[in-house]
Amino acid sequence: MIDRTVPTIAAALDGIADGAVVLLGGFGSVGQADALIEGLVEQGASDLTVVANNAGGGNAGLSRLLAAGRVRRLVCTFPRARSGPSVFEELYRAGRIELEIVPQGTLAERLRAAGAGIPAFYTATGAGTVIAEGKETREIGGRTYVLEHALHGDVALVAAWQADRWGNLTYRASGRNFNPVMATAARLTVVQAAYLLPLGDIAPEHVVTPGIFVDRVVEVPAMREGA
Amino acid sequence: MIDRTVPTIAAALDGIADGAVVLLGGFGSVGQADALIEGLVEQGASDLTVVANNAGGGNAGLSRLLAAGRVRRLVCTFPRARSGPSVFEELYRAGRIELEIVPQGTLAERLRAAGAGIPAFYTATGAGTVIAEGKETREIGGRTYVLEHALHGDVALVAAWQADRWGNLTYRASGRNFNPVMATAARLTVVQAAYLLPLGDIAPEHVVTPGIFVDRVVEVPAMREGA
Amino acid sequence: MSAGSNRTAMAARVARDIPEGWYVNLGIGMPTLIADHVPASREVVFHSENGILGLGPAPPAGQADPWLINAGKEAVTLRRGGSFFHHADSFAMIRGGHLDLCVLGAFQVAENGDLANWTTSLNDTAPAIGGAMDLAVGAQRLWVLMEHTTRDGRPRIVRRCSYPLTASGVVRRIYTDLAVIEVTGAGLVVRDLAAGVDFATVQAHTEAALLAPEQAAA
Amino acid sequence: MSAGSNRTAMAARVARDIPEGWYVNLGIGMPTLIADHVPASREVVFHSENGILGLGPAPPAGQADPWLINAGKEAVTLRRGGSFFHHADSFAMIRGGHLDLCVLGAFQVAENGDLANWTTSLNDTAPAIGGAMDLAVGAQRLWVLMEHTTRDGRPRIVRRCSYPLTASGVVRRIYTDLAVIEVTGAGLVVRDLAAGVDFATVQAHTEAALLAPEQAAA
How many other CB atoms are there within 10 angstroms of residue A136's CB atom? Predict the structure, then answer.
């Protein structure tokens, strides 16, 4: 019997190594796998490269991982926090973390490409800007495009709404965001889900992430209360 | 009020011009928009380029359009019919239709690229085969890839299960196939749906093709009986 | 400047120009206000980068769904007919030219339509691009909504952007507190003036040369 | 040949080697039979190019869902836990290396793992690729299931494919009516023989040189 569920956060994170590239779903605080991210603080992996849309705000989730000094490098589209200087901004000003800024659509497409076996693609995004510096460009049909490469993760930490033992997932509202894309792009995809359902309770037409992309699922009922 | 529904097949197909590139969803006979395709015979457009996974079997749908002499060129992955020589095969042997064979995944990705604003991408599919002849290849990470370009349609004919007046769509079982991808890749996307539902009856998490990709919807209740 | 439109009037002015049936992405900040000025009877479908079509107004106090935010991380609602999708699909919509319109804020717009709206310096302590570069190159039309000048009175509509570009040659129309200005092949054409503002005043606050409609038509 | 396995035994032999938990795509024709030989208690998730994970056995007569077919256009069922998705997502799974295994039929396999399985001539009256090229380059492992020789007795396992290639250097293992053969850096290694078949017989029907397991280990 296929059973991708694991009983604890610790089991879900077992084996994540120092130096890993960790993909974090979520947009703002919505749909980010905070229980897994905070578990990573306990788990102990360091020297991480984190790929995430935002750099974390407040003191929870990614901010805790950053404050613990575990992240060497952040790949991000929008590291500015609404609520004023964040843990990330303090580290960045102090020169204690590297930052790679990527346009949001390019980040999504590079992750999608990694999951889909596309090593590189052309996009108009960034042409004629600093984003294109050092990158190959090409005219196609009279327009200039930038060559961008697939972005693979060692681990993806995903927040889902429902899951089953095969790893089929659904998401709630805008909690979907980067999660399904990142789930396809990592060698090890770990999921925290608000609800673990019996196999078959997710209708086959409603599965958003098929279990083929998922390695471990842990139920986190606290997610039912908030995003 | 946004209302993409139209009352008749004729209204759905209005304005499709001679020489158009027409994308046909469907895999085998499942999820192919036969009512629209046969309507195209009446509508009269000719000199068409048709993009479809299969070349049609029997005497319905695509076979009718082919038999009527309206198709100049077929872009296809698998034009061989299970049931013996098809209308397409007779035309092809007689030299009365052009054929471009495309690997199925490359076809899907070229259509997806067209819908997603990606003008070109690299894929391992076809490297070292006749498919790569005349195409640029490139080594990335020690593997050889072929450069493939986006494939745009003038029109997509899509078969959906449910639709609403905004053009949001769902599909049934394996009737999904190429339909959602082609819906994104054409300038004019025309849908035949088994059920036209009130706006809001498709849950926002269950929409497969958001209405942004859809121009016209016609209800074809006969679809409820078969694929 | 005391003459000219306030933020509410500026947002309402843009809203007037958005027809029923358009798919529209509104940038973070002032552009977000535009949605409040499109009457509910006129169906416009608002898109958010984080995977939403059919954004509705802010929820009543205390009734926010914690799972439903817009690209500015504010609580929103979903209109009947709305849908959710993932980030790659969301940006496929953007990059694939499926949005009729995107309205962004800006630091500078150049007379050739260049847009600078993400950072004022490459030494920024926390530069943030978000989805602006994708929206700028992907939407069918890009309009900018911004104050005509900086807080200390320097023009934002310039001959060449001095700030790092978001995208080149993409802005089609500029809405400010003073005027509505079209970016055309012939140059910047003033299409509309705010109440109590004349052409000379707009030009005085603009580095790039402006054309009156009658000059553009000539 | 009268010795060797029949089609049922060949399919069953492959099925024996597929462990629980694998995601597997079975090509049109003989490979499709493999699924019938995986016991229901051993959960293997079968994938079909047309957007299905979790293919189940053929439906009872008269109970077919007209909306549910496999890549060979045959009526199938869906197992509990199955899911549907569109073609671009389906081939993202294939191309992205997410399938543990694909089993395809073949016209020829070369000693270097080259696969020819889509046409015997570029002058084919209706050449048909389907998803074979994508599956061949994308799956984690590619196994071939085929008759050891053509109907008129010519070998299919050759030094160089004479037919147009599907993909180069991709085949990892070959299952035939005579043997199970591994494609290794050292050459083709016979791993298993059908009942009543000896090594010399297999070599006699094979153009490429074969190694016995003890030779390969040396």
Answer: 11
Instruction: Give the Cα separation of A158 and A181 in Å (integer).
Output: 10
* Min Cα separation A111/chain D (Å): 11
C182 counts as catalytic? no
- The residue of chain D nearest to residue B116, with distances taken between CA atoms, is D88
Q: What are phi and psi of B137, to 5 degrees?
A: -120, 160
Complex prediction ipTM? 0.97
CA D85 to CA D137: how far, in whole Å? 21
* Cβ count near D16 (within 10 Å): 12
CA gap B189, C24 in Å, rounded: 19
Considering only residues 109 to 168 of chain C, which have any Cβ-Cβ distance to chain A shorter than 8 Å? 122, 125-134, 137-138, 164-168
- Rounded CA gap, B174 and D48, in Å? 9
Of the candidates B57, B55, B22, B19, the one whose C-alpha atom is nearest the C-alpha of residue B39 is B22
Q: Considering D43, D49, D74, D214, which one is annotated as catalytic?
A: D49
Contact residues, chain D, for A117 at CB < 8 Å:
92, 94-97, 138
A9-108+152-221: CATH topology: Glutaconate Coenzyme A-transferase (3.40.1080)
**Averaged pLDDT for residues C169-183:** 98
Residues in D closer than 8 angstroms to B176, CB to CB, are: 51, 84-86
Distance of alpha carbon D69 from alpha carbon D48, whole angstroms:
9
Number of neighbours of residue C72 by Cβ within 10 angstroms: 18
* Model confidence pLDDT, tens digit, residues C3-22: 789 999 999 999 999 999 99
pTM (predicted TM-score): 0.97
Identify the segments of chain B with pLDDT beneath 70.
none
Q: With contact defined as beta carbons under 8 Å apart, do C81 and C55 qualify?
A: no
Tallying the residues shown for chain A, one arrives at 227
If you average pLDDT over every residue of chain D, what do you get?
95
pLDDT score for D1:
47
What is the layout of strands, in order, in the sheet containing D108-110?
D115-116, D108-110, D157-158
Pairing of strands C179-184, C171-175: antiparallel
List the single best residue of B29, B98, B99, B104 to mutate versus D (max D Cβ within 10 A).
B104
- Identify each DSSP E strand in chain A by its residue range: 21-24, 48-51, 71-76, 98-101, 120-123, 137-140, 143-149, 153-163, 169-170, 186-196, 216-219
Report the residue of chain B nearest D52, measured CA to CA. B174
Domains delineated in chain D: 7-217 (3.40.1080.10)
Sheet holding C108-110, edge to edge: C115-116, C108-110, C157-158
